[in-house]
Amino acid sequence: MLDNSIIIENGTLGTKEIPVAFCYKKSDEPLPIVFLLHGHSSCKNNQIPNAIRYAKEGFFTILIDAPNHGERFTENYGVIDGKNNISVFFEIIENTKNDIVEILDTLESDPRVDISRVGMTGFSMGGYTSFYTALCDKRIKVIAPTCGTPDWTKINISYDINNLPSETKEYISKNNPILSYMEFTKIPVLVQNGAADLDVPPQGSRKFAELITPLSDKFVYVEYEGYGHEVAPEMIPNTIEWFHKYL
Fold it and tell me: Are 96 and 67 in contact (CB under 8 A)?
C-alpha cells in the first residue's frame, strides 16, 4: 500500500509466469485497465512512478516485463539463434502481444477490473507493441503510443529493411500496422512523437496521420518540436486525458 491510497502488487500471471505489476486504487467498482509498456532495454519497475500517476486517475494500471527485459533478462539478449537485433526486436513485440492476450484472458473474471474498458500506451518499443496489439486483440479499445511508429519499414535512420533476414522481412510485410490503417479508424488513437527523434523518426507516424485524419474524428497526432526520443512533459497528461475521454 502506498500513501494509504495506491496499491502496488507484484507477481506473475499465466502459464508463462509473466512478470507483472498492478498499480491501482481500491474501488467498489471495477476499474478500467491501462497497460503501460516500457521501451527497449528498460523494465516494468522503471515505469512505477508513471503507473502511480495513472492509478491516481482511477485506472487499473498493468506493467509487464517484455521478454528479455527486467526479470526475464538473459545473457544472450540481442542475439537469439544467430538472428540480428532487429529480428530479435520483432520477436519481442510478437511475444509481448501474446503475453498481453494471456493476461487479459486471465483477468476476464477478476472483479477488480472492467475487461470491456482496456487502454494501452507505451514508450518506443512499447509504442510499437501498442499499435500491433490493438490490431490483434479487439479487447483493446483505446491506444496512445508515444515515440513509437506504426510503420515498421521506418524504424530508424540506420535501418534498412533490405538487409534483414527473409523471415523477418516476411513478418514485417504481413504484420506492419500501417498497412491495416483502416482498422485504427474504429478506435480512439492518440499518437505522440518527438519531431527531432532520430531513434524512431516521426515520418511513419506522419504518414499514418495523413491516412487516418480524414477518416476518423477520434484520431489525434501530436508532434513536439525540439524533442527527440524522450517523453515530452505534455505526453503523459495528454494520454491520461485521452483515456478519461474514451475509456
Answer: yes
- 242 backbone dihedrals φ, ψ, rounded to 5°: -60, -45
160 within some domain: yes
CATH assignment of the domain containing 208: 3.40.50.1820
pLDDT tens column, 197-225:
999 999 999 999 999 999 999 999 999 99
Nearest of 105, 135, 122 to residue 51 by alpha carbon: 122
Going by pLDDT thresholds of 50, 70 and 90, the confidence category of residue 83 is low
Domain count, the chain: 1
The answer to the question of residue 1 being in a domain is no
Distances (CA, A) of 207 to 66, 172, 221, 229: 28, 17, 11, 18
Domain limits at 12?
6-246
- Residues 223-242: what's their mean pLDDT? 98
DSSP state of 2: B
Q: How far is CA 237 from CA 184, 225, 232, in A?
A: 22, 17, 10
48 part of a folded domain: yes
Nearest to 158 by CA among 82, 79, 78, 85: 85
- Could you give the maximum distance between any two Cα atoms of the chain, in Å? 54
pTM of the model: 0.94
